[in-house]
Design goal:
Length: 260
């Protein structure tokens, strides 16, 4: 039987950093651990972007998850808690975007002729609430990478569930609003960029995401995490001439070793 995870102040703060990391891995949500912690590991990720005839792209990477006081950093960004109370926190941080295009990876010769779209990097201000009912966060984010120079607003709800002392499963739902600048950078077509595709200007839109992460602790030091995310894309994205899928998916696998 799945046990509901109690998330009152003290119960929440007693959760290990690895459980917090499982949620960070999936969503970038920002929480606080009562103890300073450090873990490192290795990870693998697969991304299926909605661009035409673009196969799933894989990458391997090292991971570092660190928490000290109000500061924490994980594979999906870093955050600092400006204010921390029993049931909520206000923080600032940085996090990566969710879309990218390596045009050379497409099997479509016309897509290969397009400019690449790189990951964006966002600075954010966020408020997070947590309790026995789970955790909710909302953030306002600005691209500072010089890619789209646009904004996004992200709201997320997660509910950690203890299946056994070793296994925690966390489902998540997310709604994200992307500004016209963000959507147009990733899915618009400039007249000078392609002679094949008609020019297209994407507008702002809302994407809906669902995800789940599973964390298994072999012992006090070693943890194994799996996470997957599916996002239904707004019509302004699905209507782009360089898109042949109305959704995007991603999956992650990480092995961590906790030092303290």
């Amino acid at each position: 039987m799945i046990k509901k995870h109690k998330l009152g102040k003290r119960g929440y703060e007693r959760r290990t950093l690895s459980s917090i990391t499982a949620t960070l891995l999936l969503s970038g949500m920002s929480f606080t651990s009562s103890a300073d912690s450090l873990s490192i590991g290795v990870g693998a990720a697969g991304f299926e972007m909605p661009y035409q005839e673009t196969s799933t792209q894989q990458m391997f990477f090292p991971t570092v998850n660190y928490a000290k006081g109000n500061f924490q950093v994980g594979i999906f960004g870093a955050s600092y808690n400006i204010k921390q109370e029993a049931s909520y926190a206000v923080s600032v941080g940085i996090s990566p975007g969710e879309f990218f295009l390596d045009a050379s990876k497409s099997n479509d010769v016309y897509i290969q002729q397009l400019d690449d779209r790189s990951f964006s990097l966002y600075v954010n201000s966020k408020v997070s609430f947590y309790g026995t009912w789970g955790a909710f966060s909302a953030s306002l984010e600005q691209d500072i990478s010089g890619q789209s120079s646009g904004q996004r607003v992200v709201a997320q709800y997660a509910y950690p569930m203890t299946v056994s002392p070793e296994l925690t499963i966390t489902p998540l739902i997310e709604t994200s609003w992307l500004s016209q600048k963000v959507n147009d950078f990733y899915f618009g077509i400039d007249q000078s960029e392609s002679s094949t595709f008609e020019p297209y200007e994407a507008s702002s839109g809302v994407n809906i995401g669902l995800g789940v992460s599973a964390l298994y602790s072999f012992n006090a030091q070693w943890q194994f995490m799996l996470a997957a995310r599916y996002a239904k894309l707004d019509d302004t994205v699905a209507s782009s001439p360089i898109v042949d899928n109305t959704s995007s998916t991603s999956a992650f696998m990480v092995v961590n070793y906790k030092f303290w």
